[in-house]
Amino acid sequence: MKVREIRTYITWGEPRNWVFVKVLTDTELYGWGEGTLEGKETTVEAAIHEIGASLIDKDPTAVEHHWQALYRHGFWRGGVVLNSALAALDQAMWDLRGKAWGVPVYRLLGGPTRERIRLYTHVGIYQAADLVTDAKRDMADGFTAFKTGAWAGDAHLPEAEMTALFADRVASLRSAAGPGVDIMFDNHGRSRPSSAFRLMKALEPHGLLWLEEPTQPDDMESLSRLRAGNPSMDLATGERLFTKWDFAPLIERRLVDIVQPDLCHAGGITECKKIAALAESRYVQVAPHSPQGPISTAAAAHLGMAIPNFLILEFVRSAPYRDRVLKEAWPVKDGHLTVPDRPGLGVELDEEALAASPRRDVGIPRGAWHADGSVADV
Questions:
Q1: What is the model's pLDDT at position 363?
Q2: Same domain, yes or no, for 153 and 247?
Q3: What is the pLDDT of residues 314-351, one digit of tens each?
C-alpha cells in the first residue's frame, strides 16, 4: 500500500472551522485526520500539503518512521502550526493502519483498558449568560461533568471585581448542577501567579474537579508557586504544549495533577501516547484537550481506550454540524462515549456535507482588552 494523494477540507463546525485531511492510497483504503487550529486554518492546510508531500509513494502503516521524518527532516521543528499538520497526517496514518489490519486503532495501541469514555461538555464558555441554561440542557441528556470559564470579555474589569464575578458564576453553576456533577474552570492562562492564587482560593468553596491553565503554560515557576499553596482542586494544563519534550519538565516536577495534550496539536496519536506514558510514570492523569471536530474526538477516544491513566474527554456538541458530517454517529449515553468496534478510527465523513458548510471568518472570540485599551490575553 502506497500513499497516492492528500486532500484537505476546511468546514464550519460551530463554534470554529474544522480542518480535515484525507490520505488516499493505491488501494481502496484511505485515512482521515484532523488538524483544526482556530484562526490559522489555511496556514495549517498549507503545512499539511507541504510536509505531507514526502509521504507520496510511501507505505502509510510505518507511522513511527514517518512521524520522525516529518518532525525532524524539515530542520525547523515544532510549533503549533507544524505540529497540527503533523498531527492530522499522523491520525490519518493510524486510521489507515487500523483499516489495513481490520482492527480499531485502540487495539493497536494496547487497549482496551476500559469499556467507555467519560465526556465533559462546555457550559457558558464565551457566553456566561448561558451558563445555567447549557448545564440544565446537558444534565437532561445525561452529562455529569462540565467546563466553564474562558470569558475574555471580562478582561476590562479590575482584578478583584473579576475574581468575585467568576466565583459567583461558578457558585450559580454549582447550585444548578448539584453536588454530584464535576465542574472544571478554564482560566486560559490569563493570571499572574499571585492573581491565580487568589482566583484559586475564591473558587475553592465550589468543589472544582480542576483549575485549568491558571497561568501561562510555559511558566513552570508560577505553577510551582500555586502547587505550594496546597489547592483543594486539581491543577491541569497542556493544551498549548506540543511534544513530549514540552511535557517532560511539567510531569517530572509534578506541577499539575492532569495533563491535557491535544491530539490535533501535540503531534497526533503517536506523540500523545508517549506523553501519556510519561504522565503515568509520575501518577499524573490524562484528560485530552479536544474542543474540535469528530476526528479529533475519535483520535482522543482511541487514546483514552488504550491508556491506563485516562480521566475524561472534552466534547463540544457542535450541533447540528457534528451529526451532519458524520455518516454514522458514535453512541453517546449517560455522558459517556462508546467507541465502535470498527477498523481504524471508525469514523467516516460525508464529503458533500463538508462542502455544504463552508468555512467562516467568525467564531470564538479573538480579542480581549484591558480597561485602558491595552492588549489582554484571550
A1: 67
A2: yes
A3: 999 999 999 999 999 999 999 999 999 999 999 999 99
Q: Are residues 80 and 178 in the same domain?
A: no
Which active-site residues does the annotation give? 188, 289
Separation CA 335–CA 207 (nearest Å): 20
* pLDDT of res. 74: 85
Q: What is the pLDDT of residue 365?
A: 72
pTM for the model: 0.96
203 & 268 share domain: yes
| Angle, CA 31 vertex, CA 30 and CA 34 arms, to 5° | 145
List the domain range (segments joined by +) for residue 195: 107-343
Q: Are strands 3-12 and 17-25 parallel, antiparallel or unpaired?
A: antiparallel
Q: Is the dihedral of CA 31, 364, 259, 75 positive or negative?
A: positive
Mean pLDDT by 10 residues, the chain (378 residues): 98 96 98 96 97 98 98 92 98 98 98 97 93 97 96 93 97 96 96 94 97 94 92 96 96 97 98 98 98 98 98 96 95 96 97 96 81 93
* Three-class DSSP labels, the chain: CCEEEEEEEEEECCCCEEEEEEEEECCCCEEEEECCCCCCHHHHHHHHHHHHHHHECCCCCCHHHHHHHHHHCCCCCCCHHHHHHHHHHHHHHHHHHHHHHCCEHHHHCCCCCCCCEEEEEECCCCCHHHHHHHHHHHHHCCCCEEEEECCHHHCCCCHHHHHHHHHHHHHHHHHHHCCCCEEEEECCCCCCHHHHHHHHHHHHHHCCCEEECCCCCCCHHHHHHHHHCCCCCEEEECCCCCCHHHHHHHHHCCCCCEECCECCCCCHHHHHHHHHHHHHHCCCEECCECCCCHHHHHHHHHHHHHCCCECCEECCCCCCHHHHHECCCCCEECCEECCCCCCECCCCECHHHHHCCECCCCCCCCCCECCCCCECCC
Locate 359 and state its grid cell: 468555512
Residue at 350 is within a domain: no
- Asked whether residue 368 is domain-assigned, the answer is no
